[in-house]
């Protein structure tokens, strides 16, 4: 492998992006960036602001003035918001319900994309980055670009298992289906772009998905 190894993994909610990306990063000794965690931290900014969803310019100004810092250790992923640890808070249902408010704000997306590129550079491009439009917008020059998909039933079941009893079936379906529908208005993550490898994890276990993607890394097969 070369000194630089940037892996970009996109996919819909519940496709296994986070678990897979952490596993790949651990296997290859790379840093890890969950870009969704920054969007979730931005959603907390919105929730605590009292702003209306229609106040898009004010929301963008609020988010872009915040200090949102992710940890990049795949064994201990974390998220800080203005010096406060929100690692657990960003997974709460109230946050999941509002993520699309900031994720569909184009000014917020542009600002966060720049933050992602800065983090990639700081990691000397030895990092696994996962999200929505990483393979096409944030890091189209990645050494390996993957679109990880799964059928809706599998994705809903995985998200339900991940969240345990903290949410009901309707909330899980909303997180998976509605969020994907909303985010698809500003991001293309349902079909692989040219040069992006498609991996369908519907009938694959986590270890198998990790092994498949590691096998795609140049010089690692």
From TrEMBL:
GO terms for molecular function: ATP binding; CMP kinase activity; dCMP kinase activity. It holds the Pfam family Cytidylate_kin. It is found in: Cytoplasm. Residues 7-215 form the Cytidylate kinase domain. Its main location: cytoplasm. Its EC number is 2.7.4.25. It comes from the Bacteria. Keywords: ATP-binding, Cytoplasm, Kinase, Nucleotide-binding, Transferase. The keyword Coiled coil does not apply. ATP binds at residues 11-19. One of its GO terms (biological process) is pyrimidine nucleotide metabolic process. GO terms for cellular component: cytoplasm. Belongs to the cytidylate kinase family. Type 1 subfamily. InterPro entries: Cytidylate_kin, Cytidylate_kinase_dom, P-loop_NTPase. CDD domains: CMPK. HAMAP family: Cytidyl_kinase_type1. It catalyses: dCMP + ATP = dCDP + ADP; CMP + ATP = CDP + ADP. This is Cytidylate kinase.
């Amino acid at each position: 492998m070369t000194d630089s190894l940037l892996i970009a993994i996109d996919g819909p909610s519940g496709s296994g992006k986070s678990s897979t990306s952490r596993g790949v990063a651990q296997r290859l000794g790379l840093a890890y960036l969950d870009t969704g965690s920054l969007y979730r931290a931005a959603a907390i900014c919105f929730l605590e602001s009292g702003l209306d969803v229609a106040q898009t310019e004010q929301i963008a100004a609020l988010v872009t003035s915040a200090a949102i810092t992710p940890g990049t250790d795949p064994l201990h992923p974390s998220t800080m918001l203005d010096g406060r640890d929100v690692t657990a808070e960003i997974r709460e249902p109230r946050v999941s319900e509002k993520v699309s408010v900031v994720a569909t704000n184009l000014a917020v997306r542009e600002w966060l994309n720049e933050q992602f590129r800065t983090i990639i550079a700081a990691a000397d491009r030895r990092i696994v980055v996962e999200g929505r439009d990483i393979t096409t917008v944030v890091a189209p020059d990645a050494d390996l670009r993957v679109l990880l998909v799964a059928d809706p039933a599998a994705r809903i079941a995985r998200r339900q298992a991940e969240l345990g009893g903290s949410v009901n079936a309707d909330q899980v379906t909303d997180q998976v289906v509605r969020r994907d529908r909303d985010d698809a208005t500003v991001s293309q993550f349902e079909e692989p772009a040219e040069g992006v490898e498609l991996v369908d994890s519907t009938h694959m276990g986590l270890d198998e998905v990790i092994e498949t993607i590691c096998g795609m890394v140049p010089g690692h097969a």
